[in-house]
Amino acid sequence: MMQISQTYRRATARFEAADWLIPTLARLVFAGVLLVYYLNSGLTKLGDGVLGFLSPSTGAYAQIFPRAFEAVGYDSDAMNMFHWLVVVAGTVAEFILPLLIVIGLLTRLAALAMIGFVIMQSLTDIYGHGQASALGAWFDRFADAPILDQRAFWVFLLIVLVIRGAGPLALDRLTDRRS
Q1: Is position 33 within any domain?
Q2: How many structural domains is the chain composed of?
Q3: Which one of 18, 75, 143, 166 is CB 3.0 to 4.6 Å from 172, fit for a cystine?
């Protein structure tokens, strides 16, 4: 049994030496699974023109503040400055944070902010859009609940980046060398 254990350790030692691989793959998986998702979501919130993020679409208010937007008769002019600030910040975050993660710039901070974003997105889906049925449950036989199951994987991936950083193939690495 001792020889099997030693053989196993020797065979797997290469994996431990490749600690750069985990954060690099985490960013690659993020890019492959979530980058286009968040960019497309951000595009649905833009108003017209180059500065469309400053005049969000009605869909932006409907997505982020569904009940408050319904209460004002779906009139975005009736929403207050707080609502506008949150919608603009959320829209900008949907573009900036995923791009920062993919290029590996300020990765830990961007990943931490994305975790907060995913939590707020999930709470909005559950309470704002009434999607409690999509919540799902852990430790059941179904692995496809859009909120608890899928977003747990998203957050885990982001936690890896918060703890391990971006890896060697990142702009963070360039800025570390210069400072």
Answers
A1: yes
A2: 1
A3: 166
To which residue do tokens 């408050």 refer? 68
Four-residue CA torsion sign, 19, 24, 28, 29: positive
Q: Decide: 104 and 173 in contact? Cβ < 8 Å.
A: yes
Burial of residue 122 (number of CB atoms within 10 Å: 0-12, 13-18, 19+): buried
How many other β-carbons are positioned within 10 Å of the β-carbon of residue 36?
A: 11
Helices (H), 104-143: 107-123
Q: Which stretches within 52-167 are classed as H helix?
A: 58-64, 66-71, 81-103, 107-123, 148-164
Domain membership flag for residue 2:
no
Asked if residues 87 and 45 have their Cβ atoms less than 8 Å apart, the reply is: yes
Query: pTM score > 0.70 for this model?
Result: yes
Cα 157 from Cα 17, distance rounded (Å): 20
Distances (CA, A) of 105 to 18, 28, 122, 170: 21, 14, 25, 7
pLDDT digits (tens, 9 = 90+) for 86-108: 999 999 999 999 999 999 999 99
Range of the domain at 136: 24-167
